[in-house]
Write a structure and sequence with these properties.
The structure holds two protein chains of two kinds. By secondary structure, chain A is an all-beta fold. Chain A is built from no helices and eleven strands. In chain A, the strands form two sheets. In chain A, strands 2, 4, 5, 6, 9, 10 and 11 form a seven-stranded mixed β-sheet that branches. Chain A is globular. Chain B contains no helices and eleven strands. In chain B, the strands form two sheets. In chain B, strands 2, 4, 5, 9, 10 and 11 form a six-stranded mixed β-sheet that branches. Chain B has a five-stranded antiparallel β-sheet with strand order 1-3-8-7-6, with no helix packed on it. In chain B, strand 7 and strand 8 form a beta hairpin. Classes of the chains: A mainly beta, B mainly beta. At the A-B interface, strand 5 and strand 10 of A face strand 5 and strand 9 of B.
Chain lengths: ~110, ~110
């Protein structure tokens, strides 16, 4: 089944403890992206990647890192999480702009 | 600046028709997307418009007017399962970056 897989689905962590949210797609898509979704604000892009070893900042990159060493994987790293990073995170991939994005199931992160 | 506006919430009756509007102001335009998002779930792709006019896909249709910076999503023969948020997103340029509206929560009543 074609899909984007994110893990974990839910995570509660403490301020300052490094964490990684994994994202993997099995559709051979070149483009991948990370979003956060907060009530009333819509989806905001954190980072995106056009291909292996090619990444760039989105609209809200502060406090996040990404890497794209393989085409299928695009992990999101929070080196020192803070409470304002509590949010719902989505990974998405696409083969082409006009096809839209396939989203992962989301990761609900709480930083206390 | 970049801005996308959608109504926050709409209510409609099962079996009826509803139109969800989206207006945008962006520095560039390379297509407009509509997504459906059920509560607690991931958004799913509904439609993509890059040229003016109406695109029909079953019970759902999407319209675009580039000169007016305006789009709408039309849902016919509403079903209870259509209760969801509907997200409008604009591609500004030739890459894959999108600007997203905050979404319209659609409530369907029996």
């Amino acid at each position: 089944e074609a899909q984007v897989t994110q893990n974990p689905r839910y995570l509660i962590t403490v301020t300052g403890k490094k964490l990684t949210v994994t994202c993997s797609q099995n559709m051979n898509h070149e483009y991948m992206s990370w979003y956060r979704q907060d009530p009333g604000l819509g989806l905001r892009q954190i980072y995106y990647s056009m291909n292996v070893e090619v990444t760039d900042k989105g609209d809200v990159p502060e406090g996040y890192k990404v890497s794209r060493k393989e085409k299928r994987n695009f992990p999101l790293i929070l080196e020192s999480p803070s409470p304002n990073q509590t949010s719902l995170y989505f990974c998405a991939s696409s083969p082409d702009r006009s096809y839209g994005y396939t989203f992962g199931s989301g990761t609900r992160l709480t930083v206390v | 600046g970049q801005n996308i506006d959608q109504p926050t919430e709409m209510t409609a009756t099962e079996g009826a028709i509803v139109q969800i509007n989206c207006t945008y102001q962006t520095s560039g335009f390379n297509g407009l997307f509509w997504y459906q998002q059920h509560a607690g779930e991931a958004p799913t792709f509904l439609s993509y418009n890059v040229l003016d006019g109406l695109e029909e896909k079953g019970r759902f249709s999407s319209f675009l007017s580039r000169s007016k910076g305006y789009s709408y999503l039309l849902l016919k023969e509403l079903q209870m399962k259509d209760s969801a948020s509907y997200l409008c997103a604009v591609s500004r340029d030739s890459n894959y970056q999108l600007i997203w509206g905050a979404g319209t929560k659609l409530i369907i009543k029996p």
